[in-house]
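Human:
Focus on the backbone:
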Amino acid sequence: MYINVLTQIGAKAVDQNYIYSVPKELISKIKVGIRVKISFGKMILEGFVTKINPDINYDKTKIKDILDIVDDTPVLNKEMLLLGKDMSNKLLCSLVSSYQVMLPKALKAEINTNIKIKYNKYLKRLKSIEEIDEYIKNCKYESQINILCKLKEGDILITKMTSSINTIIKYGFAKIVMEEEKRYNYTGSHNYKKVELTDKQKEVASRVINSFGTSKTFLLYGVTGSGKTEVYMNIIEKTINNGKTAIMLVPEISLTPQIVGKFISRFGNIISVLHSKLSDTERYDEYRKITEGKSKIVIGTRSAIFVPFNNIGVIIIDEEHTSSYKQENHPRYNAKNIAIWRSNYHKCPVLLGSATPSLESMARAGNKVYELLTLTTRVGSSTLPKVQIVDMKEEVKKGNFILSSILKEKIKEKLLKKEQVILLLNRRGYSSVITCRDCGYTLKCPNCDITYTYHKSSNNLKCHYCGKSVPLNNKCPKCGGENVKDYGLGTEKLEEELHKLYDAKIVRMDVDTTSKKGQHEKIIEDFGSHKYDILIGTQMIAKGLDFPLVTLVGVVSADSSLMVPDFRAGENTFQLLSQVSGRAGRSTNPGEVIIQTYNKENYSIELSSRHDYISFYKEEMQMRKMLKYSPYYYMTLISITSKDYNIGFEESGKIGNYLKSKLNPSTIILGPTTASMFKINNIYHYQIILKYQKDNNLYDTLKFIDSMYKNNSKVKVEFDFDPIRI
């Protein structure tokens, strides 16, 4: 027997099947989709079996045997194999990279990670407590008595065998059992009680439930606090009762503690959690729990869409508007598209939920591609918060550079009432620009040509693109002057300012404070139990979090997301402001929101203050139509990167000329030009943007370009269909 093995050699993902023979003793175990160990040159690799051949027309003396079989069952089932091929075709990426992205690291086709199941040894009681007590009365050995007393309370973890343990086993009081160690333990709060759905919530849930067995896609437009999570759980409960499984995606790791806590309280241990903060071993264990049928519900971030469930009953994507569902490195898949593909395969509905749906999703609902569901009011007695816009141009005149007078006063008021405050500032670090006041030189990362961010806690300048970190030197590298100062505002500086103003317990939640494992959960749990009065954070605090005591939300700099050179800047700003505003007043106490801005008249900011998504949607759609952007036009971003400035420039020009000669005249070609982030980690970035409504020549043209540069070591060309950022 001979097999085709697909593997990854080095960092470059190139599709190449290699033929190997199968020793007789392993033939019965070979299946398509399992991993096998192979020798490749001097390396020992793992690869996927993609085809089984009883015989081949090839020189068999040159064919090596596989070394071993890694899996008893395929890690890539029939569905995953088909999905990988579809992704490879549609995204113009390698087949091996499509398969790689579906699996946890421990199961990828690369050098063996050797992650194994870990077992713990336990002493398990066999006799009754009465029998143990009777023995203890006459026992002379304190060590035996101590063990037996512990045994009465439950199983005992054994780290080493002792003579006392052996004696207890010998007399039949206990036995040794081996249990698999659970390497991931969720520690969040489970203070959740099932609630009765409102009539409107029941109507929404019923629409989805009645579509079970179909591949229908729903868009749930529900304002913040309208009880979307309760609707999700009701739908999932019906799914599980029908003997099916459910996938629920959340956009941020920060959302998982609260949501998982609710789900565990309601559904118990049939839940698996998948996100990037899990270790390789923890992710491997969760994956095995899924494949062995012990999990019926998976909650996770983007990559959880690939869980190998065989009988999916529903797929739910919460906060569907979020850009984090799109992978920005190769292969650039969108989890929403993968969900719809799997929906068609399993004949199950997809539910997309958001208080601020993406324009593309709302447009599809308007065209009846998706079915629109709505929840327009908050549940219970809570109402949407009152929002006040503060003009920072006027506040600066008064000397208020960070916090406006009204926001300062409102924070003081809430602290006196023992209520909580959330402050959003979507920029980490202490300050964003370090400049010499003598010559005007701005300190930049030499690898990226991007300004450093100053982190005062470590007194370091950090590049948030390549990771380079250098100590702050007050001497200017250009003129030698010692008048180097920081400008701008980050979460670290905001925290310092708040400590000066208030005697309050303050916690900061950004990439810097959540880098360690479990920090997300700890911060959210501690803030939820009122160990802190004020939570400062970047956009990770804007969505989905539910804290009953939060009655004030402050947006310190609403303009930062407007200044990004991206056609979605207005939409992103509206969504961010609306979402973070929704964290206020989610219980009986009314909520207030203060938005600080230098662009008070901007329609994204003004309409978010009125919670008026529909007006924003109409306004933004007019703009998109006029400028020929999505959703009126399809878009494809072609990225050309090279370590050599001149080569990147020349090749991007060649690609641009080729596109002009092959594509329809109606297709708009923008570029080639330098990307907004031109130099990152000493690699130069060029781009071409295509805008089109219909072009029959497009796919073949791009496929040809892909083939021309696939093995080019000096230039890398990648394609991003429906890009999130340009």
Summary: The mean pLDDT is 91. The two ends are 49 Å apart (CA to CA).
